[in-house]
Amino acid sequence: MGDSIEDFVQELQNRITEEIKEAYGEIAYERWLNPPNRGALPAPDGHAVLRGVCGDTMEIFLQFENDRVSNASFQTDGCGASIVCGSFAAEMALGKSPDELLEITGESIMESLGKLPKNDAHCAFLAAETLHEALNDYMIKETRKSKPTPGDSTSNS
User: Fold this and answer.
1) In whole angstroms, how far apart are CA 60 and each of 3, 19, 52, 127, 146?
2) Is residue 76 part of a domain?
């Protein structure tokens, strides 16, 4: 009896795996199993956390060097689609300038994936929006750095 239960469980797992691959495609499936760029970055230059309409939370961390993203990562408490989209958003950000980051959209993330069920498209938009908010955080910090403070010897008051 033990073998039949184990065989049943294995067959069920194989069926689920095949259904996931069919729905999401091989690229997203592999990314879901081993998502690169996952985890927090220490001392990010830009950081954002947003909650999507589905309740998933997406977090993006950016580090810049010479006004280009030198490192990017994500965290999510969401579903497999959120993991895949967060991973792609972080990867797509690498090497980009602030202006180029704005070109990363939900559509471009979905295009990179090749396949994403319509019901999960909101995850790509959440990842892109979180990326843009992390960029906004970076830009605000950079503006504050370059703005003279009252009493600063470089200000012309």
Assistant:
1) 45, 29, 14, 8, 24
2) yes
